UniProtKB/TrEMBL annotation:
Coiled coil regions, renumbered to chain: none
Gene Ontology biological-process annotations: protein folding
Biased composition (Basic and acidic residues): 274-288
Record's protein name: Phosducin thioredoxin-like domain-containing protein
One CC-aspect GO term: cytoplasm
Protein family membership: Belongs to the phosducin family.
Family matches, as InterPro entries: Phosducin-like_chap/apop_reg, Thioredoxin-like_sf
PANTHER family, alphabetized: VIRAL IAP-ASSOCIATED FACTOR HOMOLOG (PTHR45809:SF3)
Higher taxonomy: Eukaryota, Sar, Alveolata, Apicomplexa, Aconoidasida
Record-linked Gene3D superfamilies: Glutaredoxin
Stretches the record annotates as Disordered: 232-259, 271-301
């Protein structure tokens, strides 16, 4: 017991009562060594909880998708930062090795399936690049690029001048307008931009030229070998529900019309003997029989 700050102060009478069992025994006093060890353990648990919470916040912040909505202008000075480095894998090492099961209640609300980064984020990000020249067709390409950036705001579409970014050995020649696709810090596709105009559809529709070029660009960007299509349109739930309901109603009406035509047709060729759904149980049972012997009928009757 501590002599400077005693806690279990008793009297002789209390000690005598405890000896005879009239009072409960005193709890053993905590020594300074035990108290210091307990405080150190509490401090370590608190620091560990704060570190886990901070790592969890950083991971959630890193996973948050950045929206663009418009093409990002690039130059030869910003190409590496805006395209090459932007297409590299995100930092998935933050928070790895953290035991999420031992965190506090606010951390337990985090979905355990999202602890590991997505496979696509580990590999890299798609960054399409449009390099245009001074030709008239570049106006439609730029308009289609703006349309694609509006359709897919989470994809970083970049645009720039081909003469300032792509260098040629000869001063008399100029590189053609090109479309590049970067992923994981590498260029995985490079194609002339004007070839898109030759392969686009010219059907009679209400779509604008920019929208048609954008559709053709989607096909080209999604056709890279070894990579799945990353430009996927997601329709609204309300439209999909209404379309599915209308399709179900159309199929139901066609089925009813087909059944009605079937009943009328069979009724005519059988002289009114076919009644369809209005048949009685006995008539339906007689039609389902696979025999015509009256002996078996009497035996089964």
């Amino acid at each position: 017991m501590s002599t400077t700050h005693p806690t279990n102060i008793t009297t002789e009478w209390d000690d005598l009562q405890r000896k005879h069992g009239n009072l409960p025994e005193l709890e053993p006093e905590e020594t300074n060594e035990v108290r210091d060890a307990r405080m150190v353990e509490v401090a370590e648990l608190e620091l560990l909880r704060e570190a886990r919470l901070e790592a969890w916040k950083k991971k959630v912040h890193a996973k948050a998708q950045t929206t663009f909505g418009t093409p990002v202008a690039i130059t030869d000075d910003t190409f590496v930062q805006e395209v090459t480095n932007a297409s590299k894998a995100t930092d998935g090492s933050i928070g790895q090795g953290v035991d999420m099961e031992n965190t506090e209640s606010d951390e337990k609300t985090y979905n355990a399936n999202n602890v590991q980064p997505e496979l696509l984020s580990n590999a890299g990000k798609y960054v399409p690049v449009l390099l245009v020249d001074d030709r008239k067709e570049s106006v439609y390409l730029q308009g289609a690029w703006i349309e694609l950036a509006r359709r897919y705001p989470t994809i970083k579409f970049t645009t720039g001048s081909v003469s300032r970014i792509l260098k040629c050995d000869s001063k008399n020649t100029c590189p053609p307008a090109s479309i590049l696709l970067y992923f994981g810090g590498k260029c995985i596709m490079q194609t002339p931009a004007l070839s898109i105009l030759k392969g686009m559809s010219y059907d009679l529709t209400d779509a604008s030229v920019e929208a048609r070029v954008a559709d053709a660009l989607e096909v080209v960007l999604n056709s890279v070998s070894g990579h799945g299509g990353f430009l996927i349109r997601r329709e609204g739930p309300s439209n999909s529900d209404s379309d599915s309901n209308s399709d179900d109603e159309e199929r139901s009406s066609l089925k009813k019309a087909g059944n009605k035509f079937k009943r009328e047709f069979l009724s005519r060729i059988t002289g009114g003997k076919y009644k369809g759904d209005s048949d009685s149980d006995s008539d339906r049972e007689s039609r389902n029989k696979t025999y015509t012997s009256w002996v078996l009928d009497r035996a089964n009757g």
